[in-house]
Amino acid sequence: SVILQPPQVGISSSQRDPGMAASNEETKIYRKDCYSVEVFSAFNEFRKSSLLTDLTLSTADGKSFNVHTIVLAAVSLLVRRNLTKNISCSWSRILDPEVEDIGLEAIVEFAYTGSIPNLNRDNLDQIRTAAQTLEASRVLEICNEAEEETTKPAGHKNRDMISSTEQLVIGLQFIRQLWEDGLGCDVILTDDFVLRQFQKVACTPKFKDLPARQLMNYLRSHALCVSSEIVVFQAVVTWIQARPTARLRLAKALMKTIHFPLMTFKEFKEVQNHNIWSKHSLMPLFQSIFEDFCSDETRTQNQCRIYLLQPSRTKFGHTYKKYD
């Protein structure tokens, strides 16, 4: 899978502020400068091989380009809006007659490389028209800047333009945001990935559509990784409340997969105060959960879970105890 945000290297807050250095705590962030370039280079190779392409953009005269929806969505608002329609398979779009293949090709080139190397006075209007149709604001800005350059007097200093690498960084940020919003993520995830990234997967809209049996299998797995048992509870409640009429009857079976005795008092207080218990039919279930939480330690011996260290409580090279 493609990692959308690489670890970054920077200066820690303690290095910037001498007053904080006394605590002898340091946070290091690692970054690979060419990361965005490498990611989009891989996307471009996939595109040239028609690998995983799921969108065909065509001009009225029949010229077609097979692309990745998620890559074009980082550039085009028109494509981005289509993602919100929950399109989960390959689709195509024939653009307006005024869009010529030269302009469309430039948009595709920009989406994958961050630059339009063939932009000149002869094709400026064609590229601008394509950008207006696809609502590609960053390409429009480049076209406007190119037009301004042709009207400036000789010797006039050009203003700094965003480099192709910086454009790819922006594009990757757009893709990351789309991913966090659950848009363009219709690839079926492997069970191993879901178990390791359950905390993130549970926050996506697609999680609410998970079949009951599959969710139960994840919750029962000893390979499930979360930062706290409260995360499992929140995921279960989110799934139930997405379709309460059909899923409330599964509440008892799902709650049995949660290891409530492994929660802290603060976490269980959050469980107790949740509005799901306002359903009168669930009150006996909560009473059973409360008794389970208050039980002696001998009943928790068979309950185990892989807990991830939370970033707020852990720093590279240092380990902090959890206090609640």
UniProtKB/TrEMBL annotation:
SUPFAM superfamilies on file: POZ domain
Highest taxon, organism lineage: Eukaryota
Protein name as catalogued: Kelch-like protein 9
Record domain BTB: where: 53-116
PANTHER family noted in UniProt: KELCH-LIKE PROTEIN 33 (PTHR45632:SF14), LD33804P (PTHR45632)
Gene3D superfamilies recorded: 1.25.40.420, Potassium Channel Kv1.1, Chain A
Annotated organism of origin: Gouania willdenowi (Blunt-snouted clingfish)
Positions of region (Disordered): 1-22
InterPro entries (UniProt xref): BACK (IPR011705), BTB/POZ_dom (IPR000210), SKP1/BTB/POZ_sf (IPR011333)
Residues making up the signal peptide according to the UniProt record: none
